[in-house]
Design a protein that fits this description.
The protein is an alpha/beta fold. 48% of the residues lie in helices and 15% in strands. It contains twelve helices and eleven strands. The relative contact order is 0.18.
Length: 297
């Protein structure tokens, strides 16, 4: 059965200079590491204005088609380096994608973050055995969002209102308008979303990154308590650097300690960003064999 990439070639979609350049650098990186390489890149930074027009840059169920395309015919024994550049996205889609990739490569998956992998992107990175990052790289908090509002923030506001009203029942008049925006099941939904995200990431950490530690559960709990805490990180958009992440116990490989690897990773990163900037592409999922799933506006 032909893949997405093979069907595109069949109908006459020709490679551009951008495709040729990207694939050259992805192939060079894979040759250097001796591992399969899959690149997952979103144009959320370069084309952020399109979000207002409904363009979806986030991790979603459609990405599963992309991963199915680029995983096809890879040598599973070589493991996988997964390069991530994403604002995050849907938790259910993230869980499904991670489960799929792990069913192919087991625990032999390493995340590489040349610049930024936020929210659900951080969750994916936490499912891997280690994370390669540079001084310029960032992960982010994993506290879930309900629409544009943080689930933790909604619960905190509701508890604050409760305390205010208990102290002075007359203040319910002042809080009535705020309370009106909460539907009856909202707090329960927030609590379930938080539990889902925290439990999922904790299990992934225990099953892979911290599997060989004396107490995988303790190590995983420390990471989740920080990354999943709105009060600890203060904002869902908080950019967390290498030192922050090593401090909570994540296994971070510093890109700068292998100059050749750093140069190859950044060459891939630059070629991906140029492709997205100079074309109509909004998302690229691509492997070291030149197979790709590319979405355009």
């Amino acid at each position: 059965m032909p893949t997405w990439d093979e069907i595109l070639k069949e109908v006459g979609a020709s490679s551009s200079i951008f495709d040729v350049t990207r694939r050259k650098y992805i192939h060079k990186l894979s040759e250097y590491t001796g591992r399969n390489t899959i690149v997952y890149y979103s144009g959320f930074l370069q084309k952020s204005q399109l979000s207002r027009q409904g363009v979806d840059f986030s991790i979603n169920d459609n990405d599963k088609n992309g991963f199915m395309t680029v995983v096809n015919k890879l040598d599973r024994k070589k493991g996988l380096d997964l390069i991530l550049h994403t604002p995050g996205g849907d938790v259910a889609s993230t869980e499904s994608i991670v489960n799929y990739i792990k069913s192919i490569f087991g625990n032999d998956i390493r995340a590489i973050v040349p610049q930024i992998a936020m929210s659900a992107g951080t969750m994916i990175a936490c499912s891997c055995k280690s994370i390669v990052m540079g001084k310029q790289s960032n992960l982010g908090p994993i506290d879930p969002q309900l629409g544009i509002y943080p689930a933790h923030g909604i619960i905190e506001e509701f508890k604050r209102i409760q305390n205010e009203i208990q102290k002075d029942p007359r203040s319910i008049v002042l809080w009535r308008e705020v309370l009106a925006k909460y539907h009856p099941t909202l707090i329960g939904e927030c609590e379930k979303a938080i539990e889902w995200a925290d439990t999922m990431v904790k299990e992934w950490l225990e099953q892979n990154m911290f599997l060989k530690e004396p107490s995988p559960s303790h190590c995983a709990k420390k990471v989740v308590e920080f990354l999943g805490s709105h009060s600890a990180t203060l904002s869902h958009s908080r950019h967390l650097h290498v030192d922050n992440l090593k401090g909570i116990g994540l296994k971070i490989e510093e890109m700068e300690k292998d100059q050749d690897l750093q140069d190859l990773i950044l060459s891939v990163h630059h070629s991906m960003v140029i492709s997205i900037t100079q074309t109509n592409v909004i998302k690229i999922i691509e492997n070291n064999q030149g197979k790709a799933f590319i979405q355009q506006v």
